[in-house]
Write a structure and sequence with these properties.
This protein has about 260 residues and is mainly β. Helix content is about 5%, strand content about 45%. Strand 1 (about 5-20) and strand 2 form a beta hairpin. The structure holds copper (II) ion (2 copies).
Length: about 260
């Protein structure tokens, strides 16, 4: 009624087997059947309302990074949503940046690792410059449940972007919304070959002094990366933990030459 834009979502938690590499299946806990869960995107000041229904086998929540009433936190035992029950999360999108959400039920490491997480982007009122945008959620999977990951990726599927390079025209801005939700390992990282990028930590400021080719993140850290390719061809990106790279966390951004060049 006061002119605020209301963004309504429905998130249903349920158990589902997902394919994390060709022929490798993982018994995930999901929001809406996918890992990562759907990306939520709003402009700062918008009202976000999420009807959360738990159709899974365990108590779950949605815990958001960002300003909100602690009643909406989803982190305390009395805030856990039991199987068959539901809850409505409501808050204003704030602050500007790249954030995340995840289940905060216990044991926490199991609920996070099983797949209950996703990206949450809050745009500034004036927007950001036009770009080829993508979300990359760095994650890992413990396929034999020994408390250590056997498969690593961005956006779940090992080596997917090696086999299916992300094609971007040379000379046009690329913007990556990068989130680390990897469980069990203290850090993860992102390295892009043959370029340097502007790094906006947490994306909360619109200017940055950081210009680098590698960023290290602990769990729940995130950043916006901006880069414009100079050369056509394959630009590898991967974790600079070589072990993670060789277990799936590796991909290609392919520069496409302008047609008239
Ligand atoms: Cu959970
Ligand atoms: Cu968190």
């Amino acid at each position: 009624p006061d002119g605020t834009l209301l963004r309504e979502y429905e998130f249903i938690a349920y158990d589902r087997e997902i394919e994390i590499a060709p022929g490798v299946f993982f018994p995930a806990w999901t929001y809406n059947g996918q890992v990562p869960g759907p990306t939520i995107r709003a402009t700062v000041g918008d009202r976000i309302r999420i009807r959360f229904v738990n159709q899974g086998s365990h108590p779950h929540t949605i815990h958001f990074h960002g300003w909100h009433d602690p009643e909406m936190d989803g982190a305390f035992a009395d805030q856990f949503v039991k199987p068959g029950e539901e809850f409505i999360y409501e808050f204003d999108a704030d602050p500007v940046g790249i954030h995340l959400y995840h289940c905060h039920s216990s044991p926490l490491k199991r609920h996070v690792h099983k797949g209950l997480y996703g990206a949450y982007i809050v745009d500034p009122k004036e927007g950001r410059p036009p770009a080829h945008e993508m979300v990359m959620v760095m994650n890992g999977f413990d396929t034999n449940f020994d408390g250590d990951n056997e498969v690593y990726a961005v956006n779940t599927v090992a080596f997917h972007y090696m086999k299916h390079p992300i094609e971007v025209p040379v000379g046009e801005l690329i913007r990556i919304y990068l989130v680390n939700i990897t469980e069990f390992d203290p850090v993860n990282s992102f390295h892009l070959h043959a370029v340097f990028f502007d790094l906006f930590r947490t994306g909360t400021k619109l200017h940055t002094e950081e210009f680098t080719d590698t960023v290290m993140m602990c769990q729940a850290e995130r950043a916006i990366l901006e880069v414009t390719l100079r050369y056509p061809g394959r630009h590898m990106f991967h974790a600079h933990q070589s072990e993670f790279a060789e277990l799936g966390w590796m991909g290609i951004i392919k520069g496409i030459a302008p047609v008239n060049a």
